[in-house]
Amino acid sequence: MPNDAPPADWSPLAILTIDIDAVVTNWRRLSELAGGAECAAVLKADGYGLGADMLAPALADAGCRSFFVAHAREGAVLRSCLDGSGHSGARIFILHGVQEGEVPHFARHRLIPVLSTLRQVSLWRAAGAAALPAALQVDSGMNRLGLPAEAFHDLADGLAGLDVVLLLSHLACADDPDNPMNRHQLERFAAMRRRVPAIPASLANSAGIFNGADFAFDLVRPGIGLHGIDPVQRDLAENPLQSVVELQARILQIREIDPPEVVGYGAAFRAAQRTRLATVSVGYADGYLRALSGRSFGAVGGVKVPLAGRVSMDMLTFDISGLPAGAVQEGDFLELAGPTISIGELARHGGTIGYEILTRLGSRFARRYRKGGDVVENEPSSSHPTVMADVNQ
Ligand SMILES: *Cc1c(COP(=O)(O)O)cnc(C)c1O
């Protein structure tokens, strides 16, 4: 494959720009909000699709010492990235725990499993890993993953032989701070924590940090907030975090149509008057949800332009009649998300959440990372053959 890679001077048809400085600023802000608690970073799913290999070293440079991913393989990739950037002391937690036969990989890549079942606990012990650090996840009411309270209380009597460095649980409704479920889970978690008071505890994800100081415990685990998406349900304008992602698509064609001409698949848009159209090079194959058909906007120079008709696999057409004449030309870029249209707004138009938009952004964009005034190009880390080869050993 590397020989087939396009030369760097091919013109990109879409650009995804990720502001690493803004990610670091958001991490610092969340860290402040968490008071004295350690602020970790959750970089599962390749840093929510934005590139864990680019974000982790910058966060570690800023002082982040603990990282969370979901799969052990993600952890191994992250380990070589952190080691390679001079951060070999950083801790990497594996949220989905450990499976049969994997303990040597955990030892070799210095990964800390989050043990969530008695089976995982005995597997870890049986493999003689008792001397290696592990975390325990308890269930405080979400009933997704974690030891139920009774199982935890039984285990708590016999923790000898396990080096438990973190006790954690996860909130189900933290995005809605008025939901009584939050306090209910807090109380259940605090009760379990009292059984093992010497072990550092962690409950809050990004939204949990906004629920109040008593949710912070010893360590907080923000993911989405790092990427500038407001984790709490409120007015989009009240987002206290800094925008990170900008998505631009190149205009392939500009044309004018008159009624009764139509646009796109299903002829779903019909011109009501003379209409100027711009077709750009992004579609649902790039993660621009098809559910956004007829419901979203692009923007040029801060002016929003509505989507005309359906989202195709590789193309979108916008009604740019509202722009001043000559505002854009074929070959220019149009904003799909960025300063005018936040990822949060895009998610609302599509009936989903920012997490889903970010994690679906595909691999066809030219990726640009902004850091300290510089712009670096980088491909998604899944296409780094050297790192993946190392993990396969
Ligand atoms: C994904 C995840 C997080 C991070 O959640 P955000 O809402 O993205 O901040 C924290 N803890 C656990 C267990 C998770 O699965």
Largest sheet: 7 strands, mixed
**Overall mean pLDDT:** 93
* Strand percentage: 15-25%
SS element count, helices: 12
Bound molecules: pyridoxal-5'-phosphate
Description:
The structure is a single chain. This protein is an alpha/beta fold and 393 residues long. The chain is built from 12 helices and 20 strands. Strands 1, 11, 14, 17, 18, 19 and 20 form a 7-stranded mixed β-sheet that branches. Helix 1 crosses helix 3 (52-61). The chain starts with 13 loop residues before the first strand and ends with a helix. Residues 381-393 have low confidence and may be disordered. The chain binds pyridoxal-5'-phosphate (PLP). The site of pyridoxal-5'-phosphate has 13 residues, from helix 9.
Spell out the blueprint of helices and strands.
Elements lengths: L13 E6 H14 L4 E2 L1 E2 L1 H5 L3 H10 L4 E4 L2 H13 L6 E4 L8 H6 L2 E5 L2 H9 L6 E5 L11 H8 L6 E6 L11 H16 L5 E2 L3 H4 L9 E2 L24 E13 L4 E2 L5 E2 L4 E6 L16 E4 L2 E4 L9 E4 L13 E5 L5 H7 L4 H7 L5 E6 L2 E4 L7 H8 L1
Helix pairs in contact: 1-3, 3-4, 4-12, 10-11
The structure holds pyridoxal-5'-phosphate.
